[in-house]
C-alpha cells in the first residue's frame, strides 16, 4: 500500500504543478486583458480630446506595469511634440520616480524630462537634470549637446567651453574656438589687452584654422596700434579661407596709413593670385589707376572679370568706360546699365550659410537659422566676390 502511495506521488506533484501554472496563466491573462482595456480607454480619451484624463490613466497604468516604459516615453514625447509640454513633464517625471530599480530606464526618462524643460523654457531645471546624466557613458554626449544649447541661450560661454571640451565629436574644437571668441568679443570694450589676447590665443590653440579668431586678434592689435602684428595676422586670413579675402582687405585698409605703398600692394597681389577675389582686384585697380592711369586700371579689371565674372567687377568696368566715353547716347546707355547693376548689388545679401543657405547683409558666426558655428562666409560667384 505504501509503495503504491510512493508511485502516485510524482503524479500528484505533476498535477499540482500543472494546476498552479494554469492558475498563474489565468491570472496573467486577466491582468493582460485588463491592461489592454485600460490602454484602449486611454487612447479613446486622447482621440476624444480629453488628454488630461488620458495622462491620469497612463500614469495609473505605470504604477502596476513597468514593462511598457518605452510606450510611456513615446507618449510623453508625443505630448511634447504637440506643444503640450506640461503633460509631457508629468509623464516623464512619473517615469523617473517609478524606474528606481533600473538606472538605464531612469536616465532615459531624465533625458526626455530635460527635453521637456528646455521646450518649456525652464532652462535651469533642464540644466540640473542634465548635469546628473554626465556620468552615464551612454547618454553623456546627448546631455552635453543639450547643455551646450542651454549655455548658448544663456550666454554662459565659460560653462559651454568646459562642456564642449569633453564632447567626443570630431568638430568640437571648432566650437570651443568660437566660444573663446564669444568671450573675447564681450571683453573687447571692458577687459584689458592681455585678457582678450589670451582668450583669442586659446581659440587658435583649440582650432588653428579659426578665421574669426585671426580677425579678432587683428582688430585687437589695430586697436592698440600694433600694426605690424595686426598685418601678420591679417595676412593669414586668405590662406585659412579664400572667401574671407574681402574681410581681410577691410582690416588691411585700416593699417594702410601705417604701411608703405609697396608692401600694401604686394600683399594685395599675393592675395589676388591665391583667391581671385573681386574686392581685392578692385583695390588693386585703384592702385594701378593712381600709378599708371585709368586705361591700365580698366585693362586690369577686364582681365580679372574674364577669369572671375562678378557684378562688382562689371560695375567697376562700366565706371572706367564711362570716363573715356564722348558719345552722349552711348554714355547714357552705359550709365543706365550701371545704375541698374548698382541697385541689384544694393539689394543682394553679402554673406551666406554653407549649411542651410541663410543669407544676410551682416556676418553671423552662429547661424540664426541652422545654429551652426562658423558656417557663414562672404558669397562667392556672380553676386559676390
Ligand atoms: Zn545656417
TrEMBL record:
Modulates cellular lipopolysaccharide (LPS) levels by regulating LpxC, which is involved in lipid A biosynthesis. May act by modulating the proteolytic activity of FtsH towards LpxC. May also coordinate assembly of proteins involved in LPS synthesis at the plasma membrane. InterPro entries: CellSynth/LPSAsmb/PSIAsmb, LapB, Rubredoxin_2, TPR-like_helical_dom_sf, TPR_rpt. Residues 21-385 are cytoplasmic. It is a single-pass membrane protein. Belongs to the LapB family. The lineage of its organism: Bacteria, Pseudomonadati, Pseudomonadota, Gammaproteobacteria, Aeromonadales. The gene is lapB. Pfam families: TPR_16, TPR_19, TPR_7, Zn_ribbon_LapB. Gene3D superfamilies: Tetratricopeptide repeat domain. Its main location: membrane. Fe cation binds at residues 353, 356, 367, 370. GO terms for biological process: lipopolysaccharide metabolic process; regulation of lipid biosynthetic process. Residues 351-378 form the LapB rubredoxin metal binding domain. This is Lipopolysaccharide assembly protein B. PANTHER family: LIPOPOLYSACCHARIDE ASSEMBLY PROTEIN B (PTHR45586:SF1), TPR REPEAT-CONTAINING PROTEIN PA4667 (PTHR45586). Keywords: Cell inner membrane, Cell membrane, Iron, Membrane, Metal-binding, Repeat, TPR repeat, Transmembrane, Transmembrane helix. GO terms for cellular component: cytoplasmic side of plasma membrane. It is found in: Cell inner membrane. GO terms for molecular function: iron ion binding. It comes from Tolumonas osonensis.
